[in-house]
Design brief:
By secondary structure, the protein is of the alpha+beta class. 43% of the residues lie in helices and 25% in strands. The protein contains 4 helices and 3 strands.
Length: 161
Amino acid sequence: MANDHHAGKGCVREQRPDVEDRRDAMRVLALAGAETLAAAWSDWQDKPRIEDIRRAETGLVMLRGRIGGDGASFNFGEATVTRAAVRIGGSVGHGYVLGRDKDKARLAAIFDALWQGEARARVEREVLAPIRGDIAAADTRSAARTAATRVDFFTLVRGED
């Protein structure tokens, strides 16, 4: 569906590979630490001209949940989100991050815009790949901590039953 922003319940959205790749890149940027993005931008040579389309602003989003993944949806609560939008050349980048870090949201938008242009391979190599490695390492550490506290329950059958 080319115009899927009007898709209602039950509509299937067809995703182009670029859409999924960008979604993943934006996810990685949102999960990155602010200091990581700041360091990557500081190291970036030949910084392009950046036009702020939407200065970073903070607001609330409603979180929706479901019991068991298939129950009726309900309003779970609110979360603070900061967003920004920039233009670099012909590309418009968007940054959405949890929390109130306006600099992080703007940096995420900058790297999103760069990712959409000719610097895509460079952003993947110099920015996203190291962050993905950090995320994978954190996931591995978390899994190890969880495994260390695992308790195996079993039932003993007594002979007199």
